[in-house]
Amino acid sequence: xxxxxxxxxxxxxxxxxxxxxxxxxxxxxxxxxxxxxxxxxxxxxxxxxxxxxxxxxxxxxxxxxxxxxxxxxxxxxxxxxxxxxxxxxxxxxxxxxxxxxxxxxxxxxxxxxxxxxxxxxxxxxxxxxxxxxxxxxxxxxxxxxxxxxxxxxxxxxxxxxxxxxxxxxxxxxxxxxxxxxxxxxxxxxxxxxxxxxxxxxxxxxxxxxxxxxxxxxxxxxxxxxxxxxxxxxxxxxxxxxxxxxxxxxxxxxxxxxxxxx
Length: 261
Hints:
Elements lengths: L1 H21 L26 H41 L3 H29 L17 H17 L2 H20 L8 H23 L4 H44 L5
């Protein structure tokens, strides 16, 4: 008897998990506070048709399970309402109270069913990508870099595409590292020139040239030159910030540190 009861309980738990999975919302909408996906990352490939078909089949099964639950609930509530209605008609206050509670329960169940069905039907909504703030320093340069990367991502073969991505990202970091410069020094000038002229001109020239191993090597070599310079700018600025932080630490220690007696 005990093994049979255990088997029944295990089957009931498994069935409950399957039902909860099928009537779960098809996708979660974007919520405030969640970070939008990085627009610099490569876009996700479109879903495979088989995955799309599986999603549709799952939603259809979920709606079917929800319909079965609704029918079972109605079969339970309708006779109960009839019995309680008869009791209320004969003047039973207890039956009237139970009738009101059952009606409220039925209303809540109906609302829950419609909300769950709408969530199953609704396609998942992706979080919106927030573009860079136009008032931020170098926002236009970053937008131009992003457009350049998107153009190269679609048109270039694998090796030049990877090299262009690395150089574009290095240039973006150099732009951000020099964004707060009060004057247009050599580092800030090189970063902006790379974003505005050097990289677009290089990509335009490469795409206009005949495709060959020699042109690929020339393109990759020039990209490496720009990438090394941009990485050097970022590294130097990080080192300056580290030294400034260390100097501030020494100043605060000398000002607020405990004096030896």
